[in-house]
Amino acid sequence: NESFDTVTVELQKTNEEKESAVNQLQESLKELETLKNNNTQDKSAADLMANLENEKKIREQLQTRLHKAESQVARLQAETQEAAQENKKLRETRLQELQTAKKGDTKQLIEEKHLLEDRIEGLRKDLREQNSIREELEKAFGEKLASLINTIDDLHDKRAILERENKSLSRQLEETQGLVMQEADKCKELESKVLEVMEEQMRLQNELVDEMQQQTVLKEDFAAQLQMFCGQLDAMYDKEAELTSINQELELTVDELEQKLIDDTKLRLELSDRLGEEAQLRQELED
């Protein structure tokens, strides 16, 4: 029972840590969205590079949190193996108790105790299965998050390239306009070039708009996945709380049976002492 309580407390602590990690990921996502909005509004090349650097730092922080979650999963696996070893020792102890039990009532109480312990072990198994499902969800969430981060990084790199091309075309446009003012005889040719540059600039601006729309779709998809994961995580927390309540009730029942067994043993000892005294008294009367 103490081992099971210890495992339950550790699982609860782990759940709290992972819930905190999820909250931190949500905050990081908000920071990432803020940086994206700032990048959209700010057209300065220096500010754009600074924002991209901040986003890379946030990505590294997210990867560090993922590694931490993986280490927590490894620790839970070690605890599961330790629980299996304790279960083996418990079965050996039960066998010894059944072999040494002589009285029918005592043996029945021991068997009832074993049945209750088996039910507790079943609840432990349910908890382990819930933890396994939760680990799979966390792994899927981590993979989805890594994929989204890589996609966002690619979009940012592409947007930076488009920004540089746009600025280069803007400089070419200014140079072309200067040539138009300086050389009147080449006015028509230069005007044609200006129109081509403006069309290219409009195309790049349209591509920028398309990239921003794609980023918006990705953010909405990520938010939906995160909401679904949080809902499933809440359901597992509720299941774990229900199993913990059932386990406490079963432990109370086991304690009552153990107390009943102790009282029955005391009563048998008292009866045995009385029988001994009566036998001794009869022997003295016969003498």
From TrEMBL:
Residues 8-215, 240-267 form a coiled coil. Keywords: Coiled coil. It comes from the Eukaryota. This is Uncharacterized protein.
